[in-house]
């Protein structure tokens, strides 16, 4: 990068990405224009009558690419090196608890993708240049991007975590199912991914908001929204879009009545299916808690200001263990990690993510719930780490702009009905969790009746992973790593680097 529009289009075509140039009438009316192209959703998703699954638990970890965790997993599609602007970089081992946090913004995704050459991981954008030409919208112009020049930064993304430090993940992957063709549903950072996790969209937001918490509890914050069209001067084709500042992402937006924001919670509530979302609280005894920003429903008005906020949002995240032990596991659960248990790199993270996930899996495996539960373990986005598989780009059905896919992320499915020792090469994504929940409980797609398709309809439902006719797998306890894990408050008190980017 930088690349002109013609060169960028050529590269995308070479990797099989369709360039969609919509007519002005199809995209008129701004980001949420009423004239946007509509796609009629298909039939309502129906549950499997023979499915024994009664509980779905989604554990959403953070910020790792598939190659960063499983590049040399036997039988999986991995890589041992990657290209960076003509230079071949062998993947180097790094610790899970890594002090630097690779940038993983939407503009860094464009840099990494490099028009389809996938060789931009050696240039990490840490600032924007000044000057007259970069005063307006520098995030949309590669000539305004300032990269780290030190060799350590150039090579950092070409890394993999030492297997011994994530051995519980490898053990689960060997015993159950590992997905090596699973992608983030968005091509940007965590906030956006977590919206796709519960809503199959992000209201076109493309970055993390300016303040914390993200959403309705921070009414003065701003966030970038990705809109159709080239910036001025044009550096990318219209379908790649350009980012513009917009209002607080508390959906639906007050001044955009067309920005309807149904979530899976609406569907679950309407069908009488119980659910719970485990996350750190905003405050405890007057002190801010780490990872509270991972509450995706804080950006959804219907939840934040409705009865579900006190009934179904459960804090702290550790309550999932007591609910399992006390027979109170809901039919659908999402579990977010606290700081020390997050696999996120940077000054605020730790090395106890594998043990934390193992504690949840072991608790379910040794409980009354094992025989009817599907545990889906995913990582929300690539975190800036190298991955050699070029993600497909899909135009948003309303705006025509590419909002995803992002890079590959690991997927582990643990269940007595997951195929044992199986590697799924079928394409999945974060929104596959939505489709699987809809399919399991007979819920409609989120876009049903609206004329729009959301990512839950685009995504599969882990179709090749489960075999409900097989003899249920007897649970074998996953062995934790011999670590003394710090509690969340310890990690919150550490000095975080200025460029930390969730």
Give your account of this protein's structure.
The protein has 502 residues and is an alpha/beta fold. Helix content is 21%, strand content 16%. It is built from 14 helices and 22 strands. The strands form eight sheets. The chain has an eight-stranded mixed sheet with strand order 15-12-16-1-17-20-8-21, with helices on both faces. A two-stranded antiparallel ribbon has the order 2-3. It has a two-stranded parallel ribbon with strand order 4-7. The protein is globular, with a radius of gyration of 21 Å. Mean pLDDT is 85; it is low at 1-47 and 487-502.
Notable features of this structure?
two-stranded antiparallel ribbon; about 500 residues; disordered C terminus; 14 helices; 8-stranded mixed sheet; 22 strands; alpha/beta
Give the assembly state of these chains. single chain
Strand percentage, roughly? 15-25%
Compute the number of helices: 14
Lateral strand order in the biggest sheet: 15-12-16-1-17-20-8-21
Structural class computed from helices and strand pairing: alpha/beta
What is the helix fraction of residues, given as a range?
10-25%
Q: Mean pLDDT score, rounded?
A: 85
Described by strand count, sense and barrel closure, the largest sheet is:
8 strands, mixed
Instruction: Work out the radius of gyration.
Output: 21 Å
Number of strands: 22
Overall 3D form: globular
Whole-Å distance between the termini? 24 Å
Low-pLDDT segments, ≥5 res: 1-47, 487-502
């Amino acid at each position: 990068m930088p690349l002109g529009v013609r060169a960028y289009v050529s590269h995308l075509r070479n990797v099989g990405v369709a360039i969609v140039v919509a007519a002005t009438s199809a995209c008129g009316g701004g980001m949420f224009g009423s004239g946007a192209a509509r796609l009629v959703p298909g039939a309502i998703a129906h549950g499997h009558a023979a499915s024994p699954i009664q509980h779905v638990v989604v554990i959403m970890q953070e910020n790792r690419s598939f190659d960063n965790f499983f590049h040399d997993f036997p039988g999986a599609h991995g890589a041992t090196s990657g290209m960076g602007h003509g230079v071949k970089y062998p993947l180097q081992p790094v610790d899970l608890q890594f002090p630097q946090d690779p940038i993983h913004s939407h503009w860094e995704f464009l840099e990494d993708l490099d028009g389809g050459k996938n060789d931009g991981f050696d240039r990490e954008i840490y600032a924007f240049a000044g000057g007259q030409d970069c005063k307006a919208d520098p995030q949309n112009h590669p000539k305004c991007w300032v990269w780290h020049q030190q060799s350590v930064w150039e090579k950092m993304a070409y890394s993999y975590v030492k297997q011994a430090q994530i051995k519980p993940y490898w053990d689960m992957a060997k015993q159950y199912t590992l997905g090596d063709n699973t992608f983030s549903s968005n091509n940007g950072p965590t906030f956006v991914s977590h919206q796709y996790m519960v809503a199959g969209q992000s209201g076109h937001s493309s970055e993390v908001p300016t303040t914390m918490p993200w959403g309705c509890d921070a009414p003065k914050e701003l966030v970038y929204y990705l809109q159709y069209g080239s910036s001025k001067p044009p550096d990318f084709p219209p379908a790649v879009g350009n980012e513009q500042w917009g209002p607080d992402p508390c959906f639906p937006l007050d001044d955009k009545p067309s920005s309807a924001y149904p979530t899976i919670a609406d569907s679950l509530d309407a069908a009488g299916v119980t659910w719970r979302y485990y996350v750190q609280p905003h405050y405890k005894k007057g002190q801010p808690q780490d990872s509270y920003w991972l509450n995706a429903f804080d950006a959804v008005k219907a939840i934040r200001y409705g009865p579900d906020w006190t009934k179904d949002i459960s804090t702290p995240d550790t309550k999932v263990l007591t609910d399992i032990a006390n027979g109170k596991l809901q039919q659908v659960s999402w579990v977010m990690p606290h700081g020390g248990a997050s696999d996120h790199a940077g000054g605020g993270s730790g090395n106890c993510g594998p043990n934390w996930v193992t504690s949840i899996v072991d608790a379910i495996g040794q409980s009354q719930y094992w025989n009817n539960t599907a545990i889906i373990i995913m990582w929300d986005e690539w975190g800036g780490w190298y991955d050699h598989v070029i993600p497909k780009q899909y135009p948003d059905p309303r705006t025509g702009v590419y909002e995803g896919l992002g890079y590959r992320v690991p997927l582990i499915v643990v269940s007595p009905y997951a195929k044992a020792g199986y590697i799924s090469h079928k394409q999945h994504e974060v929104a596959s969790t939505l489709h699987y929940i809809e399919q399991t409980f007979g819920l409609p797609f989120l876009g049903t009746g609206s004329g729009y398709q959301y990512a839950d309809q685009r995504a599969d439902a882990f179709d090749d992973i489960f075999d409900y006719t097989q003899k249920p797998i007897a649970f074998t306890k996953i062995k934790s790593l011999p670590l003394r894990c710090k509690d969340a408050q310890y990690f919150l008190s550490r000095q975080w680097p200025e460029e930390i980017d969730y």
